[in-house]
Amino acid sequence: MDSRCGVPEEQPKIMFGLPKGSLEEPTIRLFAKAGWNIRKSSRSYKPSIDDAELDGRFVRSQEISRYVDHGFFDVGLCGYDWIVENSSDVVEVRDLVYSRASNRPSYWVLAVPEDSDIKSVEDLQGKRIATEVVSMTEKFLADKGVEAEIEFSWGATEVKVPGMVDAIVDLTETGNSLRANNLRIVETLLKTNTKLIANKDSWADPIKRQKIENIAMMLEAALEAADKVGLKLNAPKTNLDQILEILPSLRNPTVNALSDDGWSAVEVVLSETVVRDIIPKLKELGAEGIIEYPLNKVVY
After folding, report:
1. Measured between alpha carbons, how far is 272 from 294 in angstroms, rounded to an integer?
2. Residue 44, helix vs strand vs coil
3. What are phi and psi of 10, to 5 degrees?
4. Which strand (E) or helix (H) includes residue 246?
């Protein structure tokens, strides 16, 4: 509050680096579940965010850590791999494991054709490697004492072996794409996932840090809720102990008395994948009024 005129002081805006490309739509959906609506036109890089304390830009994930490091962004979302590749000096606020396809981490791997004579990293001596992460690959080979020619790849890296290069370093989640292209993994360079990162000066600012920590908590809560549901039911007290035994829960189930002394109200949060097996068992034990409902956030 400004003591001179009684007008609230304007809060400093947080400039947010948002990933453009494959992470763009998953990020917009994640923010929506967390409580922020982000809107943008197809031709615009500047989104509209329904929070007066937030501003942002959509840029390539590969560049976000550099702009956070340099101070253009206070905070950003990008892969850990690009923090490493860019040697960015930033605060890693929170791991947020999500991607275009799933909520699993990905891996940068060294791969060669199935019939290649290359069996180990040492066999790459004097060979040619294509990759998007040149710096990471150079450091990896240097640590192994291997000298090889490393060329930057603009994409579709897996099609460049064996005709153009001897090996590739590429990103994979399951390895299915590599196997489909008759490629064999020799070694893993890095495990990576999306991270919320902050500029060091912004993190040192108490007001900005509090806002960043609040955003981190809500985004994490939205991710935690992704594969969970809530379940409500009325349980006969004669079978209450048996019902509680089959209900997995984040914490102990909530049990409340009903106006009918013979019944209790039970509520739990559990993994969505187990509900299909549990509801028939609950019915067999006499449960009634079973309601399954989706969750937007789970805060531990």
Report:
1. 9
2. coil
3. -70, 130
4. none
Is the domain spanning 14-102+194-224 CATH 1.20.1530.20? The answer is: no
Backbone torsions φ then ψ of 152, nearest 5 degrees? -70, 135
Q: What residues does each domain of the chain span?
A: 14-102+194-224, 106-191, 228-294
Residue-wise pLDDT tens digits, 171-229:
998 888 898 889 999 999 999 999 999 999 999 999 999 999 999 999 999 999 999 99
The domain made up of 106-191 is a member of CATH 3.40.190.10: yes
Predicted confidence (pLDDT) per residue in 228-264, tens digit: 999 999 999 999 999 999 998 767 899 999 999 999 9
Helices 206-224 and 24-34, packing angle to 10 deg:
100
